[in-house]
Amino acid sequence: MKFLVLGSGLMGSALAFDLARSKNVEKVTLADADLLRAEQAAHKIGSPTVVPTHLDVTMIDSVVDAMKRHDCVISAVSYRYNFILTKAAIAARVHFCDLGGNDEVVHHQLSLDAEARKANVLIVPNCGLAPGLANVLAARGAELFESLDSVEIRVGGLPQHPRPPFNYQLVFSVEGLINEYSGTSTVIRNGKVTQVDTLTEIETVAFPEPPGTLEAFHTSGGSSLLPAMFEGKVHHLDYKTLRYPGHCEKFKALLDLGFASNEPITIGSNLLTAKEFFFELLKRKLDFGGKDLVVLRIRITGRREGCRQALTFELIDFYDEIDNITAMMRATSFPTSIIAHMIAEGNITARGVVAPELFVPLDPFVTELAERNIRITQSWMEIAG
């Protein structure tokens, strides 16, 4: 099997690393507009299977041509390009996965479902951590109930050694972070899909040390297609991001002041927007390279075997000291790599534009993650009522 990975940054390099170690993989082309970055990433991976190449995703004819020479393509570039890359994959008649994260872009991709089916390809947006892994666990777990009461998804990437004032470090792109913190979050309340503001309804969630006690609050994009999938089937469903206590209030204050707005700002002879200036500050102050962890908890309640029960999935994953791969890279890229491998190998036969929560099987998925030392615990508990 031959894979094309678009983007050789943190997530792209982790994708190539995992694919190169997977069975029956002949070649992993690691493509980037910056050839030097692709070469450096390939050198660090140290596998002859990984071949760096220059490719600019805005040059669509070249992208389609490159896609045609592979069995599956994975995008690890900004979500802004996922719609046009979806069109390119359909034109190339090749399967395509991306890390997603933006609901508007995903809905545009879904509009191409009929075209993808006609081309006999599978396009899978939102394959990462959340949306992605978390959504697959929630959807497959819900299938184990006779009826549902609630689905609560709590996910976060955190520094192992937090620094004030935000007690946070960048574990993926700053653009992706602000996208999550902006707009609204799609939830289900009283059985109906509705919207709530991001950075609201803070709650306390307790985990073992580390990370210990955290706060959870609404962010956008994480629930993906779950609300539409479960409307009328569950009383309550929501997705919240986990951070160390106090983070949400401090960050919300900056956003309320317009730090992420498109207001123009002149600095000397340079004209920037407030958002561009803010992004640069965040990259300088929050990208300090500390070791990280990823924490996930999904709690599903409903009726099963004649009584009310709760099913909990939990994951705490840490920076890989041996291969020097962050927990966020592992928890985002490895699930995507597994899904892409399942598709290319023919173990997944769906076609069209389909989110992973609609078709990825639970047991093989969890087994593959465990082989990468990403271990998800599953526990049941009877509850009153």
- Looking at the structure, the CATH topology of the largest domain is Dihydrodipicolinate Reductase, domain 2
Question: How many domain regions?
Answer: 2
Major pleated sheet: 9 strands, mixed
- Give the helix/strand class: alpha/beta
For the secondary structure, the number of strands is 18
Task: Give the termini separation.
Answer: 51 Å
CATH architecture of the largest domain: 2-Layer Sandwich
Count up the helices. Answer: 13
Give the averaged pLDDT, no decimals: 95
Q: Give the name of the CATH superfamily of the largest domain.
A: Dihydrodipicolinate Reductase, domain 2
Residues in β-strands, percent? 25-35%
Uncertain spans: none
Shape: globular
Rg, rounded, reads 20 Å
Describe the structure.
This protein is α/β, with parallel strands linked by helices. The protein has two domains: 124 residues, NAD(P)-binding Rossmann-like Domain (Rossmann fold); 205 residues, Dihydrodipicolinate Reductase, domain 2, CATH 3.30.360. It is 34% helix and 29% strand. The chain is built from 13 helices and 18 strands. The strands form three sheets. Strands 7, 8, 9, 10, 11, 12, 15, 16 and 18 form a nine-stranded mixed β-sheet that branches. A seven-stranded parallel β-sheet has the order 3-2-1-4-5-6-17, with helices on both faces. A two-stranded antiparallel sheet has the order 13-14. Helix 1 crosses helix 12 and helix 4 packs parallel to helix 5. It is globular and about 60 Å long. The protein starts with a strand and ends with a strand. The mean pLDDT is 95.
